[in-house]
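Feature request, filed as a ticket because there's no other form

It would be nice if the structure record came with a short human-readable summary line next to the C-alpha cells. Right now we just get the raw output. Example of a typical job, pasted below so the devs can see what we mean:
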Amino acid sequence: MGPVGSFTLATSPQIYKDINMSIVRITTAVFSSQQAADAVAQGVAKNVGSMFPSAEQLIGIQSDGNALISVGIYGSQQDMEKADAEKDKVMSNPDIVSIETVVGNVAFNHFN
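Raw output as currently delivered:
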C-alpha cells in the first residue's frame, strides 16, 4: 500500500511484504434474538479451528446481544476462498435477519 498520510505503515521490507499479503473478511450477522446469536457463537467457538483451518486469525465479537461480528484474516485470497463453504453453512442459519460482509487488505495488525 505504501505511505498512508504522512507515515509509512511498515519500515522493514519483509514485514511490509507480509502485511500486504494478508486479506481480511469482516462479516456482521444480525439474528432474530440473542438466544439465536448465543447458540451460533457457542457452536462456532467449539469448532472454529477445524471449521476454518485456512485462517491465520479469527476473532468473534458479540454486540448488541443479537449481532455477531466475525473478523477473519487469511494469508491470501485463495486461503479465504477455502473457508467459503463453511462460512456459507454458518450464514445459512434461518435466524439471521441481515448480513453485511466487507473484504479488504490488512493495512496493519498490531499485537502487544
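Something like this underneath would help us a lot:
Helices lie at 13-20, 34-51, 77-82, 84-91.
The first helix runs from residue 13 to 20.
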